[in-house]
UniProtKB/TrEMBL annotation, chain B:
GO MF terms held by the record: ABC-type oligopeptide transporter activity; ATP binding; ATP hydrolysis activity
Domain (ABC transmembrane type-1): residue spans on this chain: 16-298
Keyword terms: ATP-binding, Cell membrane, Membrane, Nucleotide-binding, Transmembrane, Transmembrane helix, Transport
PANTHER family reported in the protein's UniProt record: ATP-BINDING CASSETTE SUB-FAMILY B MEMBER 10, MITOCHONDRIAL (PTHR43394:SF1), ATP-DEPENDENT PERMEASE MDL1, MITOCHONDRIAL (PTHR43394)
InterPro entries given in the database record: AAA+_ATPase, ABC1_TM_dom, ABC1_TM_sf, ABC_transporter-like_ATP-bd, ABC_transporter-like_CS, P-loop_NTPase, Type_1_exporter
Membrane topology: Multi-pass membrane protein
Organism annotation: Zongyangia hominis
GO cellular component labels: plasma membrane
Protein name: ABC transporter ATP-binding protein
């Protein structure tokens, strides 16, 4: 797994920059389209809530002015007009209530909209992955893919929700407050706004400086994750070879470097807040002093200063928030871009328009001049020809890299041939749908795969339509029934995430049971028995022999002992079939197969 | 979470400083409205412009002081929180390096990785937040209340009424939101898990045509997550408006009662204005504190997961007075009535195993899956400790050695070859750091690695990628054998290490080994009979018990299970 995004992604805003900001943002917003009506309503509520919250300081100021003039009247024997104050306060109360109500409604709606949008995005990604060719998965580590479909979607989802309502609220608030401040006093506004460019300039400078540290932090995090991952994976070896000290020293070095970068980055970004705060206070003081002078000169009612101060307090917040949101949006768009890259990957060649469906499969397989290479420039298989009669057991042997697994990839159409054809019962597999083709096959792969769920569910995976009885039958046929029954919970035992609660051999047996259940016309056993011990293998062998009866089967095995009874053995070397025949024939030929066979059972010279 | 406090101890001074400085900046913040009310009551009311300017200058000084204090707080907060992160990572990593396999298994590799990286990061962010923002909240809150009291004791009654409401409201919402946020985390994990399963099983899914089913499985998890998230966020949506309503209504109350007080001549207008601002500040502090509620569940879960690692008991430890084997005794391994159960397992995996092997002898272990073959050899270097009985190396109980000394005697080649990023050289030399160039070459030749090393442009300095992904399985296995060979161990242990090799290499390697291991004990776990049939001693394991010991010939005659295994692999003429 390369550079995990993990812990670093919260600072992604300072790091990953989208390549095509506008296009990606537009596309991301496109996901909101189905909800445009409710989004429109939500925005309306945001605007209303903002409007009311902007009005409230002015109304409160009116109350203050009323109190102050009453206070001044007290000197002349008058007093506060409580009826007027009461009226104003009632209006204020209604404004507060409405503002809160609208705020709640808009947040309620936005939560629904943004989460549904994220649901759709995740669904799209998932469905896209199902359509991608295997090549996509084989050329990337799944950590890499996983980081896109989980971390990136997560990033978009958390920030999406925040940014929508905050952005609209902030912009509306800034505009609204600006208007109100100008209405109250253009002069005071001027005083207040002088401070604005100051805070912007200061924070921009700091951001620029901190970017370098954030980048360094990101790199250190990547290094640390890599080291930790590697050393934990190799824990056994580290213990065995007493490497703990060296490994720890290396870790400390990276860890210290990370600390050095991290605190600087954090400190730099923490400076912005006090600076903005100070500039805000500066405006506050200027307004107090300037306003005070103006009120004493009779140019301004007192309540207006109060209102103005409240506006000023509210003004700084959305501005720094907008700056923050701008950052969040940038990281959101960068994450969205990575997701869209997945969505834009080239899909598998679609199935043919007029597929042929075999009604009863005999199981004749023919390779006709098949040419294929993972890299088109360097074909691995050239002009491969062979045919298999129905019911035959074909063994494929050869050294690593000879193309054994590739044959399976081509048969199952995990990859498509570059030249030639593969025919099943005389029909080109390109003329069938992939689903129909794969329905004919049952396969047991080298790496066993299970998902978190009961053993029963994991076996049933071979054919989801089968009942419990058949699941047990299949397990029995694969010699898995016995061990399953000895497990706690038996068939209902839940396999954990990487099925580490059962042994490798047991996993293998489950995989075989799965294949048995699917009752295929053609079987593929890809080195299936290599991690099952010989005794269990013997049992499996019996089951397999029964299973392969009347079925065409392909067996790829390292151990030649397991394939001696094959009808035909294909000896592959560098993508070519160099020998074919039964075990006896090949031994008699005295070629490569014989060398291989003898080397397996060779006695060491010194023995 | 409280257990974490000891990791904060080195930062006590810094934390005290942060609290003090937060007081300073809180004081500065709180003084501004008081000074403003002075401007209004004494300056504006009397038209004293000079006073207004003096107060203005004082405010400016306080604002500067506040900023300076906050910046210093930021500095310490950054150092303390990232410092805690560094120390926690260090603590976890060191602990994990001490782990025997038993502890390692209980956590699992991927879980340990997230604990060392993500969980620490979560806590680091939480502490940062705590120091920079949240500490300020109670100071502002209490300060605001005190200032209100000072300005007008009777008006502060409004606050006294409002605060319980507020606390009640926040608690109620947090009460509902906390479990939801926890369950959201679980559901997010599930979505990720399903996705991971789908990626790793892509071939199987396609082979069994279960794409539609998988789509459904993901959709279910996705829907579940979405619903819970929406519910959680809708609950949280209530928080701010509710807090606002309560506080805004207290403002209204303040204005009304303030008016009455002014009318009674007990208060000035500026005081009322100041009180209103204090109430605003108190409100803000509650909003800040509610942030803790949002971050708390994640952080405390992370803290728990970290402490689980740090506090876990190490099962394999060095003795107080380690012993060393005498110089002349070498390459002997003995098992005396050894029984072993994995922690928490009801049944032992191996029962009452006894055997001995000496210098120059090859002992092979064969048996079915789960029969306990691999377990036996893991007990020799103390990857696990026996449950009963004893394992002796060179006549001394393995528990009486320092682990380092014990393992230095052993060249262990695990089933799954593991290489580390670096070069071919660095990987071989990790077996023995001070080995000479010659020794290294000899090890490479022995392990049949020379042919592919020589094909590489940079030979021994060819880079190995993380996890050894740039060499094939067989090459990895050969290099891991070279790593063992370079230490010239007294005891070679092969845990089914030949399976990734093709037959030719397997045979050549065994021949080379035979010559090399005259002075060493060799213990081999194997699947192929051909690999072990010339061993001096073959142990046949079945369901944790040793059911046969002897040479190939002997066992063919005496051991039914061995004969079964052999006949499945060998032809009749080979058996004869």
């Amino acid at each position: 797994m390369s550079m995990r995004m993990g812990p670093g992604r919260h600072q992604a805003s300072h790091y990953g920059k989208p390549k095509d900001f506008k296009g990606t943002l537009k596309r991301l917003l496109g996901y909101l389209k189905p909800y445009r009506v409710s989004l429109g309503v939500a925005i309306l509520f945001i605007l209303l809530a903002t409007l009311f919250s902007i009005l409230s300081p002015k109304v409160l100021g009116m109350a203050t002015t009323e109190l102050f003039s009453g206070f001044q009247r007290m000197a002349t024997g008058g007093g506060i007009d409580f009826e007027a104050v009461g009226r104003i306060l009632i209006v204020l109360g209604i404004i507060y209530l409405l503002s809160a109500l609208f705020n709640y409604i808009q947040q309620y709606m936005i939560a629904g909209i943004s989460q549904k949008t994220m649901y759709n995005l995740r669904k799209d990604v998932d469905e896209k992955l199902a359509k991608l060719p295997l090549n996509y998965f084989d050329t990337r580590t799944y950590g890499e893919i996983l980081s896109r479909v989980t971390n990136d979607v997560d990033t978009v989802s958390t920030s999406f929700q925040q940014s929508i309502s905050q952005l609209i609220t902030s912009v509306a608030t800034v505009i609204g407050i600006l208007v109100m401040m100008l209405v109250i006093s253009p002069w005071l506004s001027l005083i207040a706004l002088i401070t604005l460019p100051l805070s912007m300039l200061a924070s921009m400078k700091v951001v620029k400086r901190s970017q370098g540290f954030f980048k360094g932090q990101q790199i250190s995090i990547g290094e640390l994750n890599g080291h930790v991952e590697e050393m934990y994976t190799g824990h056994e070896v580290i213990k065995l070879y007493g490497r703990e000290k060296q490994v720890t020293e290396e870790f400390d070095k990276i860890n210290d470097k990370l600390f050095d970068n991290a605190w600087k980055a954090q400190f730099c970004s923490s400076i912005i807040m006090p600076i903005i705060g100070f500039v805000g206070n500066l405006g506050y003081i200027l307004v107090c002093v300037g306003g005070g002078v103006m009120v004493s000169a009779g140019m301004l009612p007192l309540g207006d200063i109060q209102a103005f101060i409240q506006y000023l307090r509210q003004f700084n917040q959305p501005i720094s928030q907008t700056a923050n949101i701008a950052n969040i949006i940038q990281s959101t768009v960068a994450a969205a871009e990575r997701i869209f890259e997945v969505l834009d990957e080239q899909e598998e060649v679609p199935d043919t328009d007029h597929p042929v469906k075999l009604t009863s499969v005999k199981g004749e397989v023919v390779f006709e001049n098949v040419t294929f290479g993972y890299d088109k420039e360097h074909p691995l298989i050239k002009n491969l020809n062979f045919s298999v009669k129905p019911g035959q057991k074909i063994a494929i042997v050869g050294p690593t890299g000879a193309g054994k697994t590739t044959l399976v990839n081509l048969l199952m159409r995990f990859y498509d041939v570059d030249g030639g054809r593969i025919l099943i019962d005389g029909v080109d597999i390109m003329d069938m749908t992939r689903d129909d083709l794969r329905d004919m096959f049952g396969m047991v792969l080298q790496d066993t795969w299970s998902f978190k769920g009961t053993i029963r569910e994991n076996i049933r995976y071979g054919d989801l339509g089968q009942n419990d009885k058949n699941v047990v039958k299949a397990a029995d046929a694969a010699y898995a029934d016995h061990f399953i029954r000895t497990l706690p919970g038996g068939y209902e035992m839940i396999l954990n995430e990487d099925a580490s609660n059962i042994s490798q051999g047991q996993k293998q047996l489950l995989t075989i049971a799965r294949a048995v259940l699917s009752d295929p016309s053609i079987l593929i056993l890809d080195e299936a028995t290599s991690s099952v011990d010989t005794r269990t293998e013997l049992l499996i062998q019996k089951a397999m022999n029964k299973l392969t009866e009347g079925r065409t089967s392909f067996v790829i095995a390292h151990r030649l002992s397991t394939i001696r009874d094959a009808d035909c053995i294909l000896v592959l070397k560098d993508g070519d079939i160099i020998e074919t025949g039964s075990h006896e024939e090949l031994m008699a030929q005295g070629g490569f197969y014989k060398t291989l066979y003898n080397s397996q059972f060779a006695q060491p010279e010194a023995g | 979470m409280t257990k974490l406090l000891r990791y904060l101890r080195p930062f006590t001074k810094g934390i005290v400083l942060v609290v003090l400085l937060t007081f300073v900046s809180g004081f500065a913040d709180l003084s501004l409205p008081a000074l403003m009310s002075n401007i209004i009551d004494k300056g504006v009311a009397t038209g004293n412009t000079g006073y207004i300017f003096t107060m203005g200058a004082l405010m400016l000084a306080l604002a500067l002081l506040g900023m300076a204090a906050t910046i210093v707080v930021g500095y310490f907060a950054a150092r303390i929180s990232t410092g805690l992160g560094r120390d926690l990572r260090k603590g976890i990593f060191r602990k994990v390096e001490e782990f025997a396999l038993a502890e390692f298994d209980t956590f699992g590799t991927s879980s340990l990785i997230t604990r060392t990286t993500n969980d620490v990061q979560q806590l680091q962010m939480f502490l940062m937040m705590l120091l920079r923002v949240v500490i300020m909240a109670p100071i502002l809150c209490v300060g605001g209340i005190i200032m209100t009291l000072a300005k007008s004791a009777s008006l502060s009654l409004v606050v006294v009424v409002a605060v319980p409401f507020l606390i009640f409201m926040v608690m109620m919402i947090a009460n509902r939101a906390l479990p939801l946020s926890k369950s959201m985390q679980r559901k997010l994990d599930r979505v990720n898990m399903v996705m991971r399963e789908k990626l790793t099983g892509i071939r199987v899914i396609k082979a069994f045509n279960n794409t539609e089913y998988e789509k459904g499985r993901f959709d279910e998890a996705n829907k579940d997550l979405t619903q819970t998230t929406v519910k959680m966020q809708r609950t949280m949506a209530l928080l701010m408006p509710a807090v606002m309503v309560i506080l805004n209504f207290s403002t209204i109350g303040l204005m009304w009662f303030g008016g009455l007080r002014i009318q009674a001549g007990a208060m000035m207008v500026g005081d009322v204005m100041a009180v209103v601002q204090y109430v605003m500040q108190i409100m803000m502090s509650f909003v800040m504190m509610s942030m803790v509620f949002v971050m708390m569940p994640r952080a405390s879960a992370s803290a728990e997961r970290i402490m689980e690692v740090i506090d876990s008991q190490i099962t394999v430890t060095d003795p107080e007075q380690p012993r060393r084997a005498p110089e002349d005794v070498k390459g002997s391994v003995e098992f005396r009535h050894v029984t072993f159960s994995y922690p928490g397992a009801p049944e032992p995996v191996i029962k009452d195993i006894s055997f001995a092997t000496a210098k120059g002898e090859t002992t092979a272990i064969i048996g079915s899956t789960g029969s306990g073959k691999s377990t036996i050899i893991k007990l020799i270097p103390r990857l696990y400790d026996v449950t009963e009985g004893e394992v002796l190396v060179d006549g001394i109980n393995v528990r009486d050695y320092a682990q380092k000394d014990l393992r230095a005697k052993i060249g262990y080649i695990p089933q799954k070859a593991v290489l580390f990023s670096g070069t071919i050289r660095s990987n071989i030399l990790s077996g023995k750091e001070d080995a000479t160039e010659e020794d290294m070459r000899a090890a490479a030749i022995l392990s049949q690695s020379m042919e592919f090393i020589e094909q590489k442009e940079e030979q021994f300095d060819s880079p190995i990628a993380q996890g050894g992904t740039n060499v094939s399985g067989g090459q990895k296995q050969r290099l891991s054998i070279a790593r063992a060979a370079v230490r010239e161990p007294e005891i070679y242990i092969f845990d089914d290490s030949f399976s990734a090799l093709d037959f030719k290499t397997d045979a050549a390697l065994r021949a080379a080994l035979k010559k090399k291991t005259q002075d060493a004990a060799v213990i081999i776990v194997a699947q192929r009979i051909s690999t072990i049939m010339d061993a001096d001693r073959i142990l046949v394991m079945d369901e944790g018990q040793l059911i046969g010991v002897g040479t190939h010939r002997e066992l063919l005659n005496t051991c039914e299970i061995y004969r079964e295994i052999a006949s499945s692999q060998l032809t009749a003429e080979e058996l004869a």
